[in-house]
Amino acid sequence: MSDENLHIAFEVKASGRIPGPDLNPLRKLRDALGEQFLAGVAFYLGTRPYTYEDRIHVLPVDSIWTP
User: Fold this and answer.
1) How many Cα atoms sit within 13 Å of 49 on the Cβ side?
2) How many distinct structural domains can be found in the chain?
3) Model confidence, pTM
């Protein structure tokens, strides 16, 4: 696998909560790209970062500018 074929996807939600079905677009992309899909990140208005499932992560949107 070449580094030039790796993908990271970002999605932004204007919500304090992300239910599982909201992550379906990231799942579909992960499943379509296979090993080329490095990670999917959904930013949201909540406060807790977590990994939802394999290579799909949920992060507070303010983590973009706050260390």
Assistant:
1) 10
2) 1
3) 0.87
